[in-house]
Amino acid sequence: MYNFFRYTEPKKLLITTLIMFMILSGGYILGQHEAEKKSRTNEYISPSLGSARFQYDRPSMSRNPLKEVYNPTPPPPRIPPGKPRLVEYTLEIDEDSMHEVAPGVEIPVWTFNGTVPGPIIRATEGDTLRVTLINTGQFPHTIHFHGIHPAEMDGVFELLPGGEEFVYEFVAEPYGVFPYHCHSNPVSKHLLNGLYGMMIIDPRTPRPEAQELAFVMSAFDTDRDGSADFYSWNGKAFQYAHNPVELTLGKPVRLYVLNMFEEMMAPHIHANMFGLIPSGTAMEPREITDVVGLAITERAIFEFTYKYPGTYMFQCHFSEHMEQGLMGWFEVKQSIL
Ligand SMILES: [Cu+2]
Predict the structure, then answer these.
(1) How does pLDDT run across 62-78, given as a tens digit for each residue?
(2) How far is CA 210 from CA 6, 123, 139, 213, 312, in A?
(3) CA–centroid distance, residue 190 to ligand 1 (Å)
């Protein structure tokens, strides 16, 4: 017994010292991290983040219009089931745009047609999609569409110099939800600067009638320190916290959602479940859930209907993403008809 204590006491002392060191150094690192976060410029605290008691303000109390809210309603689908048609878009790249990334915070960005994300491109499966790209900038750019198309329409090798135009033309297939983005190197910079958007290819047999929404999830590193400062639905942090998306009680909703940032996202709707159609490439949901993980460029369709009226949060379930912009409100109202 005597020997046992003689050998264990120094061990205990060593372990205790090690634990104390780990606690103290951990506290120091955390403190440094917090101080670094606070020193960042362009920090914006949304009133919807709530009070010191961490309660969320109701959206009607915090409505604070941005200069403009990115309309979450996608353009209507082509009128199926007619014959396949030619669907034309013109996308102009501008390297000299200012973009309000959060209320009162403007940053320089690169844009397709002046917005981040760029406009939604929409066609029906089998249509011929013709997209004219005009590069008004100084750097070479491209458009790389996801989906099926010939090699020379893939927007990887054929870099478009500033001041020139190029026409992408291919048959829209398969049906689903896709990203499009610049693929000029360094791709990370062209993406982070804002050159991305969503493409919806509708099935030739139309999906059932629903209120349609489209959310592109992305993030902005405003001070270029390598970590994102704002996370956004459709390019603006907190825009649907200040301007809730109105839904009609009992009416089906179809949400097209796409992640364009290099971190995992976890879109989640509150007090409800959705039918999940990964990549939008099926007519029927694969499962019923209320959250899904989306890696960069992964996308899905969520189909849901609210059963009760009221105000419901939607968010990215990564807490940091939510606190830095990826949250908002659905206001579910009785139909006035
Ligand atoms: Cu580019």
Answers:
(1) 444 556 778 888 988 87
(2) 76, 18, 41, 9, 19
(3) 5
Centroid of ligand 1 to alpha carbon of 255 (angstroms):
28
In this prediction the pTM is: 0.83
**184 C-alpha to center of ligand 1: Å?**
5
Span from the CA of 10 to the centroid of ligand 1 (angstroms): 62
For residue 36, name the pLDDT band (cuts at 50, 70, 90).
very low
Q: Are 313 and 262 in contact (CB under 8 A)?
A: no
Do residues 181 and 144 lie in contact, with contact meaning Cβ atoms separated by under 8 Å? Answer: yes
In angstroms, what is the span from residue 55 Cα to ligand 1's centroid? 41
Q: Render pLDDT for 232-273 as a digit per residue (tens, 0 to 9).
A: 999 999 999 989 999 999 999 999 999 999 999 999 999 999
Please say whether the beta carbons of 134 and 141 come within 8 A. Answer: no
| Spatial strand order in the sheet of 274-278 | 230-233, 211-220, 253-259, 299-304, 274-278, 287-289
Tell how far the Cα of 261 is from the centroid of ligand 1, in angstroms.
16
Q: Distance of CA 56 to CAs 49, 234, 314, Å?
A: 6, 22, 13
- Residues 190, 107: contact at Cβ < 8 Å? no
Per DSSP, the residues of 62-88 read H----S-PPP-SPPPPP-TTS---EEE
Residue 114 pLDDT level (bands cut at 50, 70, 90): very high
State both tokens at 56.
Answer: 């969320």
Class of domain 48-333: mainly beta
With beta carbons less than 8 A apart as the criterion, state whether 277 and 285 touch.
Answer: yes
If you measure from the C-alpha of residue 229 to the centroid of ligand 1, how many angstroms do you get, rounded to a whole number? 22
